[in-house]
Amino acid sequence: MPSFTSFLSNNLMSLMFCNTSLVGPLARVRTLASTHTLRRRNFHLFTRTNTLRRSFCSHSAAVTVHSTTTFTNGNPEYGRLLPCPSHHGPPRIEHLVVEDGGTVLEYICKVLDLPPLFVADLIHFGAVYYALVCPKPPPTATPEEIEVYKEYTDPSVLSKRVSIKGKTVREAQKTFRITSVDEFVETGTYLRVHVHPKRFPRCYEIDWRSRIISVTESYVVLDKPAGTSVGGTTDNIEESCATFATRALGLTDPLMTTHQIDNCTEGCVVLARTKDYCSVFHGKIREKKVKKLYLALIAAPVPIGVITHYMRPINIAPRLVSEEFTKRWYLCQLEVLECKRVPWPTAEVVHRYSIEDCGWPSQEFAYECKISLLTGRTHQIRAQLAACGAPIVGDAMYMPAASAEILRPGLNPLGTCRKQYASENDKEVAIEDWIACHGKEPRIAIGLQACQISWDDGEHFYEARTPWWRMEIA
Known about the structure:
Blueprint (H helix, E strand, L loop, with lengths): L3 H7 L1 H9 L7 E6 L7 E2 L4 E2 L3 E2 L2 H4 L2 E11 L2 E4 L14 E5 L4 E2 H9 L3 H10 L2 E4 L11 H11 L1 H4 L10 H4 L3 E2 L6 E2 L4 E5 L17 E4 L3 E6 L16 H9 L6 E2 L8 E7 L2 H12 L3 E9 L6 E7 L9 E2 L7 E14 L3 H6 L12 E9 L6 H8 L11 H9 L16 H13 L11 E8 L4 E4 L11
Parallel strand pairs: 16-22
Antiparallel strand pairs: 1-5, 2-7, 3-4, 5-6, 7-12, 8-11, 9-10, 9-12, 13-14, 14-16, 15-16, 17-21, 17-22, 18-19, 18-20, 20-21, 22-23
């Protein structure tokens, strides 16, 4: 296996490109890179960013962390993952197969050349996973990666491992989150390390106690701030509404999520205090006993009544919807209860709440709609309203596509003005072009609020506070 030194020299320009964009104005960023020969099986598979693709930045052996100019024993002082940094590192996931058993902290520090405190924080964030047997590599795997997989899943090797006796290979390949720095990982164990977890700096700016709407013996209702995750992400369960609300209330047992709303959406969220009530509330959702109302600030008017679309069953954003019934696509329905014209948010409000200007052609008036969500699909309200030519203000993902459709009617191959295509292949190409018209997920907030939630025929009824676009600037 080539040394990291040669690997670094061959990719120096790529590293320079990755790192120059990361330097924050208030903190010096230092790149810690190993310069010794790699002594591990580094089982790189793939990283999903906006699309599935290989990216050098995603797999580089360099890691950027906050540091000061203070040095201890010749090494830069390490600034931890907390508090939240002012920048995000490039996407990076490391896939490893353990060659020498030991504690997970020591092993990751050794093979990835990372500081112990940094790895301890990753484990605390829930950013490290293990499986007793490494998963089968994807079609994009290199010959070396495939060889590593074959070596460690050979029946003669697996038969000697006591830990997987009684388990099928599929069962042994199931991944679990590591929760302790002292957890022992034996030879052959697969590790997935999310070196740069997705961060939520808004968590540290919020007065969480003021966002609590109600506290009962069974649940807590939270007015979720935009720019936060309800229950955390795959690589970050620390910076979540559930965690910070638990601390704000001084609860001993952590609150549990019962349902989700998008990170960029604010409003009512129910957090369970017990596992039993978590199951009870999930049952109420399945039985359609939970009613949710939303306020949406949109760029154009929509008619009162039920809007129906069908959503493509692919779990990747942007979510595509069509008015035309398509077999196996998900039914999406919402009801617009009212729609009134309001002033477009002022520059002061937009700046204060970090609303992105997505280039909508007319920004004199907006429209505030009250919406009853009849089905619950990811991005449903955002995708449906954008498909109607009325995207949500600040929605950096769907508004650019809606703007493009106005300029070039028929650009959306699933829209009302869709073209006829000579073949399915031509249509797929058009769909890929349409996806490219969409932007990125909003950084913080959009004009969408879960304004009311109720269940058991209104016996439990809660409302969020005034939405951001109606807030007065002091």
